[in-house]
Structures are given as C-alpha cells and as structure tokens.
Amino acid sequence: MDEDTHSPEEPATGPVVCARCGTAAAGGTPPLTWLSSMEDGRLLHFCESCARLHIRAIESRLDSLWW
Ligand SMILES: [Zn+2]
Asked: Organism's domain of life (predicted)?
C-alpha cells in the first residue's frame, strides 16, 4: 500500500548520457539544448550536436509515417 511514493514519470536512474556519442550531462538532467526521444519504450537523450543529426532522422521517419 505504498503507491503514493510511485510517481507516474520515474526519473531516469544514473547520469544522463548522450545515446549517440556517450557525452554525460552535468547535474543528472539533460540540458534544454539536448533532445529527448522515446524509442522502444526507453527515453533516450541526445546532446546538442547529436540532436541536430538525430532530429533529421526523426523528421524523415515521421514523414514516412504520416504519408
Ligand atoms: Zn552526443
């Protein structure tokens, strides 16, 4: 009976690292410039430079889904 301590959105455990290049974010939370992407039920983070590359892949993927 301890459901109250369970928040719907559980914070990620451990340091936040870029899923692409492995750069660790300081402070344990991704900076605003980082991109968060839910893939296969997991929340992935991409640093600023990787986000630019990754967002193009996301957009092209969305395009194909929307069509
Ligand atoms: Zn990166």
From this structure: Bacteria
Cα–Cα distance measured from residue 46 to residue 31, given in angstroms and rounded to the nearest whole number: 10
Calculate how far, in angstroms, residue 6's C-alpha sits from the geometric centre of ligand 1.
31
pLDDT at 44 over 80: yes
Q: How far is the CA of 5 from the centre of ligand 1 (A)?
A: 33
Average pLDDT over residues 27-51: 88
d(Cα 30, Cα 28) in Å, to the nearest integer? Answer: 7
CA distance 10 to 29: 13
